[in-house]
Specification:
It is a single chain. This protein is α/β, with parallel strands linked by helices and 420 residues long. Helix content is 39%, strand content 16%. The chain contains twelve helices and 15 strands. The strands form four sheets. It has a seven-stranded mixed sheet with strand order 1-7-6-5-4-2-3, sandwiched between helices. Strands 10-11-13-12 form a four-stranded antiparallel sheet. α2 runs antiparallel to α10 (293-332) and α10 crosses α12. The longest helix has 40 residues, at 293-332. The protein starts with 15 loop residues before the first helix and ends with a strand. The structure holds pyridoxal-5'-phosphate. Residues 103-105, 138, 140, 182, 185-186, 211, 213-214, 245 line the site of pyridoxal-5'-phosphate.
C-alpha cells in the first residue's frame, strides 16, 4: 500500500484497488456522519430520504449550475422550484426574489452585500456602514463584514439568551444600515424577538436580515403542529431578507441554501455583472462561480419526496424527542434545558454539576454533541431519527451525572480525566 506519510505528487497513479485500500486506511478514524449517537449537526431524516437526496445528487454531480441556462435546463427548473417552495414556506410576498447559494455563510454574506449596496443607493450620507448583530448571531456576519468593508457591531450580552433589544437600539447611529435576528441562532436555540427587531428596522429605515439557516424548515412546521412560534418570517413587515439552509433541515446533500429578499427594489443590488471580458458577459447572483448541480437537485428531490407532510412529521418527531429529553432531565435533577427553545436544537445546562464533566463522560460513551461556553452547556441538535435513542441518552446522562456527583468523573476543561 502507498505510504500515507508521503504527500509527494507521485509520478505514477494508483489503480482502483490500491486507491480504495489507501482511502479506507485514511478514513478509518472517521465516524459515520449519521450514526445514531451523533447529536451534532447530523441532518438525517431516514434512510429513504438520504437515498433520495444521494440519488439526485449523483445524477447531477457532473453538472455545473453556472451553465444551467444553456446546458442544464433541469437545474434551472429545480432551482426555481426550490425557491418557490421556500418562498411559500416563509410567507414571502409576491415579488420576493430568491436564489440558491452554496450554504448559510454564502447566503448571509450575500444578504450583507445586498444591504450594503442598497444603502449606498438609498442612504448616500452613510460613508462607513455598520451592521448591528446580537451576541448569538453566526460568525458568518462578522466574516461578511470583514470581506465587505462594513463594521459589525456585536452586542456584548443577550437578554434571557435572546437578542438584547435595548442595547441594539442604543447602538443605532447615523452609519447603521442593517440589523440582524436569528430564528433561532445556533447557541441556545432561542428565537430572537423578530417582531420587535422589525419595529426597530422600520422606525430607523434599516435592513433586517433574519437568519433562519437552521430554523427555516423547522419553525413553519412547528407552528402548523400547534406549537407557540413567534413571528419570524416575511409576515413580519420589517423583514428584508432571510437565509434558509437546504442542507440542514431541508435534508438535501451539502452545498445548498436559499437567500430570499423581500422585493425587487432591494434584490436589484444583489447580483454581479461583468461585461468587459473576452469570454463574454459574466453574470452571477451570488458569490460562487461554478456550483455543483447535485446540491440543488437533491434539495428539489427531497422537497418533492417529503412534501409538507413529510417535513411536518419529521418536526413532530424531533419536538417529541426534545420534550422527552427535557422531562427526563428534570427526573435526573441538576440538569435542564435552557429556556423554552422553539425549534429542535437546544442547550443543556447544569445547576451545580460541572456540565463539561458530564459531557466528557457522555463523549466517552460515544455521544457526539457540541459544547457551549457561556453558559457552559451541552448543545444538542436533533434529527427525526433521534427519538429512537432518547431513552439510552437519558440513561447514560443519569449514570454519568451520578458519577460526576460522586467525584468519579472530573473535567479539567481540556479533556476528560477519569478517576474510575
Ligand atoms: C444559525 C446559523 N446560521 C448560519 C450558519 C452557517 O451555515 P453554513 O455552515 O452552511 O455556512 C449556521 C451553521 O451552523 C447556523 O447555525
Amino acid at each position: 500500500m502507498a505510504d500515507l506519510s508521503n504527500r509527494k505528487f507521485a509520478e505514477a497513479g494508483l489503480n482502483q484497488t490500491e486507491l480504495d485500500a489507501e482511502m479506507a486506511a485514511v478514513k478509518r478514524a472517521d465516524r459515520p456522519w449519521n450514526e445514531p449517537k451523533n447529536l451534532r449537526a447530523s441532518y438525517d431524516a431516514g434512510d429513504d430520504v438520504v437515498a433520495v437526496a444521494n440519488a439526485a445528487y449523483a445524477a447531477h454531480i457532473g453538472d455545473n449550475a453556472i451553465y444551467s441556462a444553456s446546458s442544464y435546463p433541469s437545474l434551472r427548473r429545480y432551482e426555481e422550484g426550490v425557491v418557490a417552495m421556500v418562498c411559500e414556506m416563509l410567507n414571502a410576498p409576491e415579488g420576493a426574489v430568491g436564489s440558491v447559494t452554496t450554504g448559510g455563510t454564502e447566503s448571509i454574506t450575500m444578504a450583507v452585500k445586498t444591504a450594503r449596496d442598497w444603502a449606498r443607493a438609498t442612504k448616500p450620507s452613510v460613508r462607513e456602514p455598520e451592521m448591528i448583530v446580537p451576541r448569538t448571531a453566526h460568525p458568518a456576519f462578522n466574516k461578511a463584514a470583514e470581506l465587505l468593508g462594513l463594521k459589525a457591531v456585536r452586542m456584548e450580552k443577550s437578554v434571557d439568551h435572546r437578542a438584547d433589544l435595548e442595547a441594539m437600539t442604543r447602538a443605532i447611529g447615523p452609519n447603521t444600515i442593517m440589523i440582524v435576528g436569528s430564528a433561532p441562532p445556533f447557541p441556545y436555540g432561542l428565537v430572537d424577538p423578530i417582531e420587535r427587531l422589525s419595529g426597530l428596522a422600520q422606525q430607523h429605515g434599516l435592513w433586517l436580515h433574519v437568519d433562519a439557516c437552521v430554523g427555516g424548515f423547522v419553525l413553519p412546521f412547528a407552528r402548523e403542529l400547534g406549537h407557540a412560534v413567534p413571528g419570524f418570517d416575511f409576515d413580519v413587515p420589517g423583514v428584508s431578507s432571510m437565509s434558509v439552509d437546504l442542507h440542514k433541515y431541508g435534508f438535501s446533500g451539502r452545498g445548498a441554501s436559499v437567500l430570499v429578499i423581500r422585493d425587487e427594489a432591494r434584490a436589484k443590488h444583489q447580483g454581479f455583472n461583468f461585461e468587459a471580458w473576452p469570454a463574454g458577459i459574466y453574470r452571477t447572483a451570488n458569490i460562487a462561480g461554478s456550483r455543483n448541480g447535485g446540491a440543488v437537485a437533491s434539495a428539489f428531490a427531497v422537497m418533492r419526496y417529503l412534501g409538507r407532510a413529510g417535513y411536518r412529521q419529521g418536526v413532530a418527531c424531533m419536538i417529541e424527542a426534545k420534550q422527552r429529553i427535557a422531562a427526563g432531565l428534570s427526573g435526573i435533577g441538576g440538569l435542564h434545558v435552557l429556556g423554552q427553545p422553539e425549534g429542535t436544537h437546544f442547550s443543556i445546562v447544569a445547576d451545580e454539576l460541572d456540565i463539561f464533566a458530564v459531557a466528557d463522560g457522555l463523549h466517552e460513551r460515544g455521544w457526539l454533541f457540541s459544547r457551549g461556553v457561556d453558559p457552559k452547556a451541552m448543545q444538542l441538535l436533533l434529527n427525526p431519527r433521534h427519538g429512537a435513542v432518547v431513552d439510552q441518552f437519558l440513561a447514560d446522562v443519569g449514570e454519568v451525572a451520578a458519577l460526576v456527583r460522586a467525584g468519579k468523573i472530573q473535567s479539567r476543561g481540556v479533556g476528560p480525566v477519569y478517576i474510575v
